[in-house]
């Protein structure tokens, strides 16, 4: 029991560190900076950050959201991104367990989290993240999965074509980044769950978008980043897909 708890804490700490890393990756890729150089620094005063400034989430809380050196406000998107990554990795690990399936599951999770962050920051889903991850997912699906490889390949095609059709029908409401992201999601999920993830994402988007419109937080025609809803729909379909399907068909 204690050992299991310690393992959980250990995994969560690793997830937090990964969260911090992928957060920086997302932001640096958006700014077209190198991932390795320069070392972490304040984007405002350029002061190099010490180990104590880099503890995920906690540094932000201790420093009250300000740079230690120049007092400039740090965007709450930093700790948000770190927590989101850590929580997603942890939840996926808890559901999947130490199985081979954890490999494609975590690749998908990291891809989704980085896409959410770049989508919120700049309304962009970056090819430089999506395409390599799509490649790695394809390779992993040759060896890992309860279905044969062609099943996951078909999923990728379904995701790509579905989003392409939506992009054409919505005349640019959906970008090329979303299309490629859905190809990757399709490879991870296979065709059925990919369709379900899109239905769930659209439903979540419609509900939240409706609330934001009604409360006046956003105006009509103002674009809302779809990335967060893709994230929600895909994680839900991946973890609870068959449960959701059984629940839905029980009404027939
Ligand atoms: Zn600073």
Automatic annotation (TrEMBL):
Pfam families on file: A24_N_bact (PF06750), Peptidase_A24 (PF01478)
Membrane topology designation: Multi-pass membrane protein
Compartment(s) where it occurs, according to its Swiss-Prot or TrEMBL record: Cell membrane
Single GO BP term: signal peptide processing
Main location class: membrane
Residue ranges occupied by any Prepilin peptidase A24 N-terminal domain in the UniProt entry: 13-93
GO MF: aspartic-type endopeptidase activity
Residues annotated as transmembrane: 7-29, 102-118, 125-144, 150-169, 181-214, 226-248
Keyword entries, A-Z: Cell membrane, Membrane, Transmembrane, Transmembrane helix
Ranges of residues in domain Prepilin type IV endopeptidase peptidase: 106-209
Cellular component, GO annotation: plasma membrane
Entry annotated with the keyword Ion transport: no
Recorded superkingdom: Bacteria
Gene3D superfamilies: 1.20.120.1220
InterPro entries per UniProt: Prepilin_IV_endopep_pep, Prepilin_pept_A24_N, Prepilin_peptidase/N-MTase
Family listed: Belongs to the peptidase A24 family.
Protein name: Prepilin peptidase
Organism in which the protein naturally occurs: Halalkalibacter alkaliphilus
